Amino acid sequence: MQNGFLPFSQPIRSFAKFFSLFSLCFLLVVGCNSNQSATNVDSETASSSDRVTVGMTIRPRTLDPADSYEIAGLNAIYNLGDTLYTYEPGTTELMPLLATEMPTVSEDGLTYTIPLREGVVFHDGTDFNAEAMAFSLQRFMENGGKPSFLLSDVVDNVEATGDDELTIQLKQPFAAFPSLLAFTGTAAVSPEAYTIGAGEFSPNIFVGTGPYKLAEFSSDSLQFEPFEDYWGEEPRNSGVDMQIYGDNSANLFNAFRTGAVDIAYQSLDPDQMKTLLEGTENEEWQAIEAPGTAVNFLVLNRQQPPLDQLEVRQAIASIMNRALIRDRVFQGQADPLYSLIPTAFEVSEPTFEAAYGDANPEKAEELLTEAGFSADNPVMVEIWYPSSSTPRSLTASTLKAYAEQELGGIIQFEPKAVEGATFFKNIADGIYPAALSNWYPDYLDADNFIQPLLSCTEGSTAGGCIEGSAQNQGSFYYSDRMNELISAQRQESDPAAREAIFTEIQGLLAEDVPYVPLWQNKEYVFVQNNLEGVMLNPAQSIPFWRIEKS
What we know:
By secondary structure, the chain is α+β, with helices and mostly antiparallel strands.
């Protein structure tokens, strides 16, 4: 995930910053109190330079790649830094970035040798080389940030075996390792600007090798300027300003409609997106759409009755009405999902559709009757969700109403909301029988939708998962066969053989039903008509350096 400003003199820059802030405040007042379209003054203000203004509601918690694990921070780092590998923009196709070619892998799958690009410098003028890359990866693992486990769980040793050669030794074979090296948090950072040590983070700076330098990072904005010594493709704009609107998506919505921002992204409510999508029909602005890779599902805790009964879990899978959720909750702005692996990956198989159909109350009633339930002896299932999530609240209410309408009381869903931090803690503690949750990938490989949800390091078929991913995600699922399959696909280097393993994994998932896939996000970026080159990557990042104003 990754990648312009012609530098102003300081007095001009200060005046421009004041004028932009004044204009933004005025436009927000107008937008919040009027439904009139943008004026000519608005249009002139938005297009007065070839700097690009991006509006978002979410602020990066940190810009330290060793600790950044949220979309906002990773999107910023993607445009400020370089990783060894990345994805061809708009695709899931891996390509070298700071590496010059794909790694050479030893026969046992444990040793990766990576040739590095020459002539690269960091934003502070320090030379990039194998020692600097080894420092960056070692720091990622040793400082103990949120994503550190991604490397520390699989990497045994990182060593510079030449000025422009890096050698990485793994603890066990891992077929998806090159994809892991494309995770934005593994970006190279200057050894002169950072230190290695547990908890030694620098959240407010970024000194890497990317096409932009960080000029400012405050509570409500970030400013990027082009890095004049960048080795690669130069930005097609003279700078990027990221404006943060906090939790108020209405302010972002109005700022975009009035032309105060060039791009609106992350996050708008479904009603606001519907209005903006309607605006594209009149060519008022552009909408860039991409299939999301975030998956949303219902967690079923197999340790809690009645969800410890397979027939009950299968009945719940049968009654899921994904089309109703798509239309009623998301107004068409989501896609039905029948596997934990999203459709952006060729290995995705709609196994839940094959096994249960969609909205199949007859099959659900049959399964529940076989399990001994009836309208007089109903299945009672609490469905928990974070109280801040409107889509999950609507989804839970929709499922409740649909079950009442179609199954006459044999199964009854009871929506329950709780504050977000408590929600995620209680999931891992096994408090909830069922919960609406989601998963955003760390790296773009099918493994990252399977291993973090289904694997278990300690447990049994009878007692469930005691320790491991399935316990952390709240299903407490344990299957010897699933663990074997997950291990096998991680070690399999042949793509066809690996695809066959993923097919079996998805079949077993549909059979055992620890989770019920529901929908995958449809991602939208709204763009003013005078911009070209805006695209949205499968990892939800935007390559800013490709954007230009006409």
